[in-house]
Amino acid sequence: MKKLLLLSALLITFNSFGQTNDKEKALEIHNLERASLELNGLEWSNKLERDAQKYADFLAKKEKFRHSNELDVLNQGENLFKLEGDFNIKYYMTEASISWLSEKNDYVYAKIGNHKNIFSKVGHYTQMIWHNTTKIGIAYSKSKLGNVYVVARYYPSGNWDGEYPY
C-alpha cells in the first residue's frame, strides 16, 4: 500500500509540473525516490547526457537494445528503456524513469548478488538509488522504424556485487 501511495504522489506531483521539461521530470523522479530513502539527490551532468545521447543514437541507428561495452572504462552505470510501435507518450525520459522506479515493487533490500534471480527485475531501480552515485544524464533517440531508445548514464556506477545499494 505504501508503494502505491508513493507512485500516486509522484503522478500527482508530475501533473503539477506544467511546462517543465522531460529532463527535469526524469531527474525529479530519481531525486524524489532518493529523498524518500534519505539519500543525496543526483546532479544533472551535461557530459553524461552527451554520452547517453551518443549511445542512444547508436542504438536507434542499429535497432539494437543492449548495454554499452564502454561502461567499465568510463565508470558509468547505465539504464536502458525502449518504446516500440504506436504510443502516445510526450516525455520519453520521464516514462523510462517511472518504469525503472516501478521495479521497486519487486525489490528486497539485500546485497547485490544475493538474489541473482531477482536482480534482473530490479537492477534499474538499484542503479537509480545507488548511494555513491552523484550525477546523471539521460537522452533518447528515435529510429527510422519509430522506436524510441532511452539511455540514462550514472556516475559513478552502481550495482556492485557484494554491496548494498544504500
List keywords for this structure.
alpha+beta; 6 helices; 45% helix; 4-stranded mixed beta sheet; globular; disordered N terminus; 166 residues
SSE diagram, text form:
Blueprint: H1 2-15, H2 22-36, E1 43-44, H3 46-62, H4 71-74, E2 77-83, H5 92-102, H6 116-128, E3 135-142, E4 148-155
Helix pairs in contact: 2-5
Mean pLDDT: 88
Count of extended strands? 4
Which structural class is indicated by helix and strand composition? alpha+beta
Strand order of the largest sheet: 1-3-4-2
Morphology: globular
C-alpha Rg, in Å?
Answer: 15 Å
Q: State the distance separating the first and last CA atoms.
A: 22 Å
H-E order = HHEHHEHHEE
Proportion in helices: 40-55%
Percentage of residues in DSSP E strands: 15-25%
* Regions with little confidence, pLDDT below 50 for 5+ residues: 1-6, 11-19
Count of separate DSSP helical elements: 6
Describe this structure in words.
With 166 residues, this protein is α+β, with helices and mostly antiparallel strands. The protein is built from 6 helices and 4 strands; from the N terminus they run ααβααβααββ. Strands 1-3-4-2 form a 4-stranded mixed sheet. A hairpin with a 5-residue loop joins β3 and β4. α2 (22-36) packs parallel to α5. The longest helix is centred in the first third of the chain and has 17 residues, at 46-62. The protein starts with a helix and ends in an 11-residue tail after the last strand. Residues 1-6 and 11-19 have low confidence and may be disordered.
